[in-house]
Amino acid sequence: MFLADHRLDQLLRQEAHGKVKRLPAAYIHIPFCEHICYYCDFNKVFLEGQPVDDYVDALVKEMRLYQENGQKISVSSLYIGGGTPSVLSLQQFERLMEGIRDIFSLKDNGEFTVEMNPNNVTDDLLSLLMDAGVNRFSLGVQSFDDQLLKRIGRAHTSQEAIRAVKLLQKKGAENISIDLMFALPQQDLRQVKDSVQIGLDLDIPHFSAYSLILEKKTVFYNLQRLGKLPLPSEDLEVEMFSYIMEEMEKAGRHHYEISNYSRPGFESQHNLSYWDRRDYYGFGAGAHGLLNHHRYHNHGPIQHYLAPLKENKKPVIHEKALTIEEEMEEYFFLGLRRMSGVSLTDFQQQFGYAVEEIYPGVVKKLVDSGLLAVEGERIFLSQEGIFLGNNVFAQFLREHANSSE
Ligand code: SF4
To answer: Is residue 268 a contact partner of residue 260, using CB atoms and an 8 Å limit?
Structure first.
């Protein structure tokens, strides 16, 4: 197939252009949670009874297996996510951080994030993390409304979230992000407004705001099937999203990705590398990585993850070389999530084809229907397109694009 044969050509062209390969990012997964939230389909397990010590040791071993000749791995950012990383004990964190220090070399001013649940934030834990170089903290707050927190199965209260933010600030942490959710069962606009205002009053520089998505195998999914989940109407959901976008802009948190808002300079460097399709390592049970045009996926169940590592083997269950078609699709799927969109020139430089050759008529159709906007050689989601992102992305699946020719 002509596009697949084109791979070597593409690589040579990148080299000829002197395209400097950027450092990869590294994601480290802690899959344990103290309780399971009703909406969550993330890659996680209930903490009790899990071999957490073994897991931490295995993680460090896995990271070592990626070192070449014992050399430190240079990375642009580190991100410990979950699950709930903050359920690790101080000793477990110490061991993990020691491993990370030994194995990685984080570029100057590189971002090092840890996700935390508010009820786990203590003075001692923050001291340990900050001493280890963590410079960004992401708190799973979801809402500052206690009733709502209970309704969605969160284990913390709004007071605990406020206390966690204040403690972080007292300890000198500047780069703090909180997650908020909207379109939750029985949530009204007032509750959304209150949570946004409390977050802004706390002077938090970065917000992620997600609408509830009903995923299979969650408590909410089952309740919905039984007709017992009173969700806000679609119109109200749009109103909530619009309110969040407007308030964030007014407060100087610019909307830089569909679900993310930040004061200038506080954008998540780690997440930007996903949307830019830069390489990243994924360590831990069920983690995904992208290295050198290959996506890989680790074993998910904890015991399946631990077993190969006992024999000093990488716990990769699946690895796939991306075809150039898949890379082109990802370019749009991921790149259009950023409000700055994608560059038509960059696409041509990366793949050796003009967008119009690969997706004839698609950009024009989306611009004409008001879902995409164009500025110079960049295309990005319009205001309307932001609400219908998935419809826009689907147009860049090549099969779909070809069938609409
Ligand atoms: S939302 Fe976070 S804390 Fe809740 S179950 Fe999912 S991973 Fe665990």
So the answer is: yes
